[in-house]
Structure formats: structure tokens, C-alpha cells
Amino acid sequence: MNELEKDIALLERYIENDLNEEDKEMVEQRLANEDNFKKLLNQLGVLINGIQYAARNKVMQQLKDIEERLPEVQWEEGVEEESKTIPIRNKSYWWLAAASVVVLIVSSIFIFNQRPAPEEIYNAYFQTYDNVMNATTRGEQDAKSNFELAMQAYDQGDYSLAIKLFNELPSVEKDSGVYLYLGNSYLVEKKANKAIESFQKALENPGNFQNQLQWYLAMGYLQAGDIDKAIEAFTIVKNGNYSKNKDADKILKELTK
């Protein structure tokens, strides 16, 4: 590592407040006494934000490749090896100019091609599952059952009450449909782990809700920020025979950018 690279590494740590007191004091003394060192700090300050957001190792390798193609600095005759330094007016100007170009390119790529946050994707695609069980499965004679009250709360958007009522149902009544709506209610309440648990329980005996449960399980992983498991679940949805398979395909492309 040459002197310029050492100074850059030192200043990066200074900017990131990652120096001990002794090194910090040394840097500040140099900034007070060395104009070129101070100019380097100012130039590096412009670059550091772009480098931090980009793939730093890749960018630095690009910069090294550019630096290697620059003309060698000619040392003055009679100067000892230990005292050789790279003049700021010379090589560093071109090094930093090249760096500026690379960082601008990388920053542009980052701005226009960055992967959306899982929360953004979740908000764009999540909708609660419609009530398809109320009249068809339970019938009018059960209008005052706990299940019916739970579905009523669900339909009215009182998801906290729906969760309470669904959980109070006897175990024998907690079929895949109940867990599907319970999981949806947990998702609305931002309780991703509880939702995932509900969908996984339902998938042990999914009945007619296999596809729906897999979709909402994927949404649960997305809300929880578990990208790897979300990708696995959305892949199953994509490859299945379900109306959401195209949406799953779009989400997978976003998650794997």
C-alpha cells in the first residue's frame, strides 16, 4: 500500500469516527499543518458517500485497475526509498478524478437499480384474504357462534378482536380456514412471526387453501424481513396453479435484483 492509499484509508476511518484518540489527534494535527492532506480530506468527503452505498470492494478494485493504468510517477534522483511520497498535485489528482467517475457510475446504478425494501414490496402486494367462509361453510344457524363473531370482527377491520376470538375457538374447530384468517389478522397487526406460525400450522392440513396459505406465508416472511425464506415461498407460488403466480414472479424479480 503506497502513501496515498494509506492516507485515504486513514481519512476514511477518520470520517467514520473509527480512530482511537491518539490517531485522531495525529490526523487533526496533519489537517492543521498540511494543505494537501486537508484537500484530500475534502475530496474524499465527496467520494465516501458513494463508496459506502456501493459494493465497496468492487469499487476499490476498479479504482486500483484504473490506477495501474496511470503513468508511473518519476522520483527525483537521490531521494531515499523511505522518504518517497506521491505528490498530491501529480498522481492523486488523476486517481481522484478516476474515482469520481467510478463513484458517479456506481451511484447511478445504485439509485436506479437498488432492490426495493421488503416492506415496500409487502405494502405494494398485501391485501387481506376475502371472507369466503361466512355463509357457505358455517351457515345461518351458527350466526352467533364464536367463529361467526370472529369473522364479523375480521370483516369490520377489528383484527385485534378477530385474533382474540379465533384463538378462543376449540382446537377441533381450528381448521386451515381459521388459521388462514388468523394469520391474515396477525399480518395486519404487524405480528409477522405469529402469522407465519399460523400459516405453517394450516399447511400441515391445508384442505382447499394450499395456494392461499403459501402466498400469505410468503407475505409473512416478507414482513419479517426473511428474504431467503420469502424467495423459497414465492417460488412455490410462482410454480403453482394460482392466480397470484404472476405477482409472485414479479416479486421474485424484485427480491433477486
UniProtKB/TrEMBL annotation:
Signal peptide: none annotated. It comes from the Bacteria. InterPro entries: TPR-like_helical_dom_sf (IPR011990), TPR_rpt (IPR019734). TPR repeats lie at residues 176-209. SUPFAM superfamilies: TPR-like. Keywords: Membrane, TPR repeat, Transmembrane, Transmembrane helix. The chain crosses the membrane at residues 93-112. The keyword Membrane applies. This is Tetratricopeptide repeat protein. The lineage of its organism: Bacteria, Pseudomonadati, Bacteroidota, Cytophagia, Cytophagales.
